[in-house]
Design goal:
- With 296 residues, this protein is of the alpha/beta class.
- It folds into three domains: 81 residues, Arc Repressor Mutant, subunit A; 105 residues, Periplasmic binding protein-like II (D-Maltodextrin-Binding Protein, domain 2, 3-Layer(aba) Sandwich), CATH 3.40.190.10; 99 residues, 3-Layer(aba) Sandwich (D-Maltodextrin-Binding Protein, domain 2).
- The chain is 41% helix and 23% strand.
- The strands form two sheets. Strands 3, 4, 5, 6, 7, 8, 9, 10 and 11 form a nine-stranded mixed sheet that branches. Strands 1-2 form a two-stranded antiparallel sheet.
- Helix 1 crosses helix 2 and helix 2 packs across helix 3.
- The model has no long low-confidence stretch (mean pLDDT 90).
């Protein structure tokens, strides 16, 4: 069995399709299919159950998965050892993050890291859901709560603040807001209730707001509604400086605190390259949150 066979096996296991694996590996899906068939023939057992819904691992495939992931870690460690651990970072690193962090923090933080490491490639996957590290959707992820299951390495990065906010234009043309009861006469912007993927994001329920009239699963869409004088919503303090005219509402009565966590594969802590990037990312995020919140 060759490492390249295991690499293709892992891609199909994680994407559950030949086309998905082909895109991941930049290989024709038909080639992926032939390689999987050859691997199954060589092992004398089916590794995947094929159906119109995709490729699901069989029991034999599940058993092979553990060994294939160990081989993947060993190959990554060997490459790192040969290339050396000193000097600048290189290669591709993919980060998964909720879109608030991905839009308002990660671009500037990663730009700084890449300025110091010109051979580094960074991909930011902004998803309004939890990033699946077990399927290698990313090398590491930023979450708003620590995962309860899985072989994962979890580190709290920093706390951040959120407040009710609205644009100056909206507040100028609508009734004044002096108490929480005054919110009833205003349009409320927030998440689509049944698409809140983490309880930590259920801000409006926490402050007693029951009805959302302008809703999106994207923080960026919500923020743009605020910028366009659409209504009032809960906003990250670190996003406010980019709003040009976004003002806090009832800041002395409503203030929320949440945390960002860096989540990694437990086995990846043996890879110095990822350790160094994770340290730089965490330090950069702490500094950027502090800088932007001071301006909000």
């Amino acid at each position: 069995m060759h490492w390249d066979d295991l690499r293709i096996f892992l891609a199909v296991a994680r994407t559950e399709s030949l086309s998905g694996a082909g895109k991941l590996l930049r290989v024709d899906p038909a080639t992926v299919g032939r390689r999987i068939a050859r691997l199954e023939e060589g092992m004398g057992t089916a590794l995947f159950a094929k159906s119109p819904q995709g490729y699901a691992m069989t029991d034999a495939g599940q058993r092979l998965l553990t060994h294939a992931e160990r081989a993947e870690q060993a190959m990554a460690g060997a490459l790192e050892e040969v290339q050396g651990q000193a000097g600048s970072l290189s290669g591709q690193i993919r980060i998964g993050a909720p879109d608030g962090c991905a839009n308002y923090l990660l671009p500037q933080v990663c730009t700084q890291i890449m300025a110091e490491n010109p051979d580094l490639e960074v991909q930011i996957v902004a998803l309004p859901r939890v990033v699946n590290l077990s399927k290698r959707e990313a090398d590491m992820a930023i979450g708003v709560s620590p995962p309860a299951t899985g072989r994962l390495l979890v580190q709290r990065i920093t706390d951040y603040k959120l407040h009710l906010a609205a644009s100056r234009a909206y507040l100028k043309h609508h009734p004044p807001i002096k108490t929480l009861d005054d919110l009833r006469g205003h349009r409320i912007i927030g998440y689509i209730p049944d698409m809140i993927f983490d309880k930590e994001l259920d801000y409006l329920n926490e402050i007693g707001v029951e009805r959302v009239t302008m809703a999106s699963n994207s923080v960026s869409v919500q923020f743009n509604w605020l910028r366009k004088a659409g209504g009032i919503g809960v906003v990250h303090d670190f996003a406010i400086p980019s709003g040009h005219g976004i003002l806090k509402v009832l800041p002395d009565k409503i203030s929320l605190t949440r945390s960002f966590y860096l989540i990694r594969h437990a086995d990846d802590q043996r890879l110095e390259r990822l350790n160094r990037f994770a340290a730089a990312l965490s330090e950069g995020l702490r500094a950027e949150v502090a800088r932007l919140e001071a301006r909000s």
